[in-house]
Specification:
- The chain is α/β, with parallel strands linked by helices.
- The protein contains 13 helices and 29 strands.
- It has two domains: 376 residues, ANL, N-terminal domain (Rossmann fold, 3-Layer(aba) Sandwich), CATH 3.40.50.12780; 95 residues, GMP Synthetase, Chain A, domain 3.
- The strands form seven sheets. The protein has a nine-stranded mixed beta sheet with strand order 3-2-12-11-13-14-15-16-17, with helices on both faces. Strands 18, 19, 20, 22, 23 and 24 form a six-stranded antiparallel beta sheet that branches.
- It is globular.
- The protein starts with a strand and ends with a helix.
- It holds the Pfam family AMP-binding.
Length: 483
């Protein structure tokens, strides 16, 4: 057991007057103010019946109250289930039930996503400036802080268990790799319900640096923030970087902007070349929900020399490339396996999947990659059949499961198709039981899936390619797209 004082409480004591948050409208809050607001929110939530150990869902877009809520739940000791606001009500319902959630804190714009059988709390209610007595809060690094769901290869999402220790080591590993400066400011436009956005929340408090909070990815607002407001670091996925480079045009970012942290899947080489030509310091990174965000990241000495590499494992992480449980030499492609204190301890209520994926402390990622002669990781393929669309993970099996529930569809197969804007988009091959209109299929999927998971093109076929064991051969469907 390793216990330490709550991070926000400690930061408010060390740096009470330092800016903690800067909103896109220019409003700023100090660490002292953020801590007071989080304690006020925690008091309100306790009055609503939330206590230590409770499973509490948060359904909200990025805004200041969402940030305060994350810290408030930490102060209470509740386990946060942060929900993707782009999910359908059916997907939300599954996660709430699977996660044994007892209360939901939400932005009222999303109240239609949950039923009335839970304790539902408006995230915007309550006074954040209540008079409070001084009280100290502690945390155990082995305790669960969050359960974040990722799409499952079997069609059902699974909850990744993340501890305070996972976040602590991820933040420390990132700082030891990227460095830390007194003038650093980290721009946050990734959703805080994604591990990439959530990790910035904790880095800000642990490092004592401001985060610039944006509700969404607004190119103009973000461009202005980088150019004129002292931002030094930003986390992006490829589609965001592409739009920012286009907006930058013939201009250049200020000298203090030192890191464009690029994740969400391998980036196209032409995009990296454009960034290099514009002197934009892109640091590619490799990570996942199961590693509390970054696991490998390029450093400043190699950002331009190792184009396409995801760097080396952060301190004190380990990474290996294996095949049949044997380590492979440089330049040979195999499965990426990872080990370290930022790696999840398992999947919520999934002992079999946990045992299969986590062996002797090593997590089998299912991703393929190789080391170059200097030990830098190159990711050549993503988890088998995974589609990454605009930084969002899309598993074909989940979409196929929904499609097969339609009475007029006998069989379905989903693969990713290259797309200039989003990297990839899902497309579906269907075998009809009875004739069905494509618009009807689109509407049907929109009622069951997040919009980014809805197939963008439909291909009708007499049968799908399967092997003797009746396993769908998706690579043959992929080949059809390229014919």
């Amino acid at each position: 057991m390793t216990t330490m004082i709550n991070w926000l409480e400690k930061r408010a004591d060390l740096s009470p007057n330092t800016d903690a948050v800067k909103l896109s409208d220019g409003t700023t809050y100090s660490f002292s103010e953020l801590y007071h607001h989080a304690r006020s929110m925690a008091l309100q939530l306790k009055q609503e019946g939330i206590k230590s150990g409770d499973h509490v869902s948060v359904i909200s877009p990025n805004h200041y109250r969402f940030l305060v809520t994350i810290h408030a739940l930490n102060l209470i000791g509740a386990v946060s289930f942060l929900m993707n606001i782009r999910l359908s009500s059916a997907e939300i319902a599954f996660q709430l039930q699977d996660g044994d959630v007892s209360a939901v804190i939400l932005d009222q714009r999303y109240e239609n996503l949950v039923g009335d059988d839970l304790n539902v709390i408006d995230i915007h209610s309550g006074n954040l400036d209540q008079p409070l007595e001084q009280k100290s809060h502690s945390m155990d690094l082995d305790d669960l802080s969050h359960v974040i769901y990722t799409s499952g290869t079997t069609g059902q999402p699974k909850g990744v268990e993340l501890t305070y220790g996972n976040h602590w080591w991820n933040a420390n590993g990132s700082a030891l790799n990227l460095g830390l400066y007194a003038h650093d400011r980290w721009l946050l436009s990734l959703p805080m319900f994604h591990v990439g956005g959530l990790s910035i929340v904790y880095r800000s408090v642990i490092y004592g640096i401001p985060l610039h909070l944006h509700e969404s990815f607004d190119v103009e607002a973000i461009h202005d923030d980088i150019m004129n407001q002292g931002v030094t670091i930003m986390s992006v996925v490829s589609v965001m970087l592409d739009q920012l480079l286009e907006r930058l045009g013939n201009d250049y970012y200020p000298e203090q902007f030192r890191c464009m942290l690029l994740g969400g899947g391998p980036a196209p080489k032409p995009l990296l070349t454009r960034a290099r030509d514009k002197h934009v310091p892109v640091y590619q990174t490799y990570g996942m929900t199961e590693t509390a965000s970054q696991f490998c990241t390029l450093d400043d000495q190699n950002a331009f020399d190792k184009l396409g590499a995801a760097g080396k494992p952060l301190f004190p992480n380990q990474l290996d490339i294996v095949q049949d449980d044997e380590s492979l030499p440089a330049q040979q492609v195999g499965e990426i396996v990872v080990h370290g204190p930022s790696v999840t301890k398992g999947y919520y209520k999934r002992p079999d999947e946990t045992a299969d994926k986590l062996q002797n402390g090593w997590l089998k990622t299912g991703d393929l990659g190789y080391f170059d002669k200097d030990g830098f990781l190159y990711v050549v393929d993503r988890r088998k059949d995974l589609i990454i669309s605009g930084g969002e993970n899309v598993y074909p099996a989940e979409i196929e499961s929904v499609l097969k529930g339609h009475p007029h569809i006998a069989d379905a197969g989903v693969v990713g198709q290259k797309n200039e804007r989003w990297g990839e988009v899902p497309v579906a091959f269907i075998v009809e039981r009875e004739p069905v209109d494509e618009q009807e299929l689109t509407t049907y999927c929109q009622n069951h899936l997040a919009n980014y998971k809805v197939p963008k093109t439909w291909y009708k076929t007499d049968e799908l390619p399967r092997n003797a064991a009746k396993k769908l051969l998706r690579h043959q469907l992929q080949a059809r797209l390229e014919e």
